[in-house]
Amino acid sequence: MDTEVRDNSIRKEGFLVKRGHVVLNWKVRWFVLKADKLLYYRYEGGKRDSCHRGTIPLTGCGITCPFLEYENRPLVLKLRTGSGEEFFLEACSREERDEWAAEIRAVVQNLSLGGNNTIPTQTRKGSRALQNINISQVVDSMYDVHSGIRMTSHMEQGSTYINCFSGSALVDWLVFMQLALTRVEAVILGSALLDEGSVRAVGVRSVEAVRNAALGEQFLDDSTALYSFAENLKKRGSVKSEKSLSAVELSGRVQKRGYLLKQGHKVKNWKVRLFVLRAEPGFLHYYDPSKDDINPAGGFPLRGCLVSSLDDNGIPSGVKGKVQGNLFKIITKTDKHYFIQAPTRQEKMEWIEAIKHLT
Questions:
Q1: Which among 132, 206, 314, 338 is most buried, taking Cβ atoms within 10 Å?
Q2: Cα–Cα distance measured from residue 309 to residue 327, given in angstroms and rounded to the nearest whole number
Q3: Count of other CB atoms within 10 angstroms of residue 358
């Protein structure tokens, strides 16, 4: 990951999940953004391939972010090259997705003649559209069977809320449907929906914001702030709450998300997994990014765990294969050992510190 000298022409690099062109499955690839193209590589046995597996030319490329047409993948962005080829890439978080989109847009604009005039013009048009928007039409669009906002179940502090959506999911949807041009405009529109009574807060975070925040700060662009349609809108039913052991385990507030390499316990191979760190209660879960981030592939409580950095010189005891570096180890309270690689040394230290706070 960062054992080689960094190329100064690299604008951004990291793991993304890419949809295949022939076989329409999702696989993790290491992406490197350059001044005119996006390269991607495979990871095999814990190391990145020396030669890249594909190139996405960025001259004349169009970017759709967010791209919400994949039901269980809300963190996708779409690239359409100048030749019309489409690429679908999924990030580990909304922040990371939006950062990739911003960096790619900057590259596309640098390659484009007159690209500097694009964003201000769109911003002015979007502002006028937002002033004249019809709230009832927005609500009707949210209810649309084919393109409306997706209703899901969310867990918060031991309770499962069904038939609801998060604040960030609504912001994503409003931008995707071009009802708002930017996330800031979408938050304003979300606030209007809340103020008009078309949307109501459910769950602890969103209810607390409504009670205590200033009027313009009551709607939260946050994946842990939950909302639903108002009680008088019965098309999709009311929100119910139920408790279960899995709900408690997955109900903690997300502290950190990211792609890391994990060594298997039975077959000692290395695979990229999406790790999610939660607090209150403290748990570390990992997911198979080729599937979804709804059902964990595994996880464990952090109370009583030991986490430590491993020396990159040589192969530490218990580690198999040729690894890239930036290793650390977690020993659970039940004495189960997890060997993990981070993409960079900085990320390794950030994960170690974040985990230590919850052990």
A1: 206
A2: 6
A3: 20
Q: What is the pLDDT of residues 56-105, one digit of tens each?
A: 999 999 999 999 988 788 899 999 999 999 999 999 999 999 999 999 99
Whether 72 and 295 have beta carbons less than 8 Å apart is answered as no
The model's confidence at residue 232, banded by pLDDT at 50, 70 and 90, is: low
d(CA 246, CA 244) in angstroms, rounded, equals 5
Euclidean distance between CA atoms 250 and 124, whole angstroms: 42
Residue 48: strand pairing partners: 43
Closest CA to 259 of 98, 95, 91, 104: 91
> C-alpha 208: how far from its chain's center?
24
d(CA 77, CA 87): 8
How many CB atoms sit inside 10 A of residue 356's CB?
A: 13
173 vs 178: CA distance, rounded Å:
8
**Number of residues that make up the chain:** 359
Q: What is the pTM of this model?
A: 0.74
The DSSP H or E segment spanning 186 is helix 183-196
Contact between 282 and 272 (Cβ < 8 Å): no
- Nearest-CA neighbor of 283 among 308, 305, 313? 305
Which residues neighbour 229 within 8 Å (Cβ) at sequence distance 6 or greater? 139, 142, 143, 198, 199, 200, 235, 236
Looking up tokens 């002033």 gives 131
Q: What are phi and psi of 348, to 5 degrees?
A: -60, -50
**Cβ atoms of residues 39 and 52 within 8 Å:** yes
Which domains are present in the chain?
A: 12-112 (2.30.29.30), 127-242 (1.10.10.10), 252-356 (2.30.29.30)
Contact 276, 265 (CB under 8 A): no
118-131 and 183-196 are packed helices; what angle lies between their axes, rounded to 10 degrees?
Answer: 10
Beta-bridged to residue 339, according to DSSP, are: 329
